[in-house]
Amino acid sequence: MLRFLPLIFSIALFIACNSTQKEAKQQEESSEQKAKIYRANVKNTADIEVFDQYARSVATGKATLMDGNILAVPLHLVQGNYSVKCKFLGKSIQPMAGGYYQYSFKANLLLLNITGGKQDFVAPATTFSGAPYYALTLEEGKIRVVNLETGTPFTQDSVQFVPTTRALPAGTSVFNSNHALVGMFNTVKVQGHDSIVILPIQEIKRLLPAQKVAPKSISNLRLKTDKVYPKAEKVKGFTVHTTSGNFTFKIYEDLPEYKDNMIKLASDGYYDSLLVHRVIHNFLIQTGAADTKYAKKGDPVGWQGPGYMLPTIIKNKYIHKRSAVAMSKPPAYKNPDNRTSGSQFYIITGRTFSDEELNDYETLKKFKYTTAQRNLYKTVGGAAYLDNDYAVIGEVTTGMQVVDKIAGAPIDEDERPLADIRILSIELLY
């Protein structure tokens, strides 16, 4: 029996080696299979580029494919702009978004329609389940697997979120151990602070259209909001912070349409970084055009508002005296309904007028000035020739010297200041 021991040992060793090689081969095949899955799944996260009304690139980000032509996008990246270009890994064609289906402020989520044919995508799971979870990033052409640690889901404003210790770009896809799509990274406010969380797949699916519907224009999103704005009666005025100093104005209480609108725009930061784009010496300064935010020298400006117009409400008791705040409006050929800009306003510096001039305006405009109004124009001044044509909505209460400083700035042939003068913000006063 002893003489057979070396043979038995050799056979056992051969079997053990073969078993180890087989296990190693199985592991190698498993790694190859995973790599193949990762190469497919990394394509589920698309790159997007967002453009404003002048086709200027203003933002880039990530998005998650929900099916062949629906893209889940962080809402904050797109709202307020006009078009979105989609870049899919391995595809030379970069289709534009054809509109949106649904949006949610609470989830910071927008579902875009993708034009130009169906894209490859990972089938979504039913719910956020199947731990452990991972995300995929592409760095210098190499796929990086990011393993995710998640906390206890929490609900905020009726939307469920999943906290995570990793902070990947909003829009990045999240997968489970079965390599199914289970969510996407997103940015939401938690206790007043921006936080990176995972938006579970069931929350995204809640917005998916139940049946085929026509997508809506992306530009319409500018008018959507879930904000609760301060009540008009609590707001006493507005302080305009500019690069040339600050001034304060009020809006008359019997013009609630204009006051509510200014509260909304100022609260949303609409005026932040806009130019004082028009200065006419001894006449006025003007601001509020959306196309001035990124305008370069020589660019045409002053034609863009917030995407809507307001009625032109004229009360003859409010005149274009010096310090008057009034709303601009497009010329008649572009404005057959005589409506007023949704955001552009001007402030009168003006000059004084004689009785003869005021008589002429009364005849031309078919109305009468009061004695007090005549005295204002003859002593303080203003721009009487604008009366009864534009809506005067309020007046400067402090800082008129700053308005005068801006009104004296050197300008070019298009009445734009040679050195940019910007609105930093408009603050609500209580």
Task: Describe the fold and architecture.
This protein is α+β, with helices and mostly antiparallel strands and 430 residues long. Helix content is 20%, strand content 31%. The strands form five sheets. An eight-stranded antiparallel beta sheet has the order 16-17-21-19-22-15-14-23. The protein has a six-stranded antiparallel beta sheet with strand order 4-1-2-3-6-5. 35% of the residues are buried. About 4% of the residues have low confidence.
By CATH, the architecture of the largest domain is named Beta Barrel
Q: What is the overall silhouette?
A: elongated
Number of domain units = 2
In helices, the fraction of residues equals 10-25%
Provide the CATH top-level class of the largest domain. Mainly Beta
Give the class from helix and strand content and strand pairing: alpha+beta
Order of helices and strands: HEEEHEEEEEEEEEEHEEHEEEEEEHHEHE
According to CATH, the fold-level topology of the largest domain is Cyclophilin
Q: Mean pLDDT, as a whole number?
A: 90
Terminal CA distance reads 104 Å
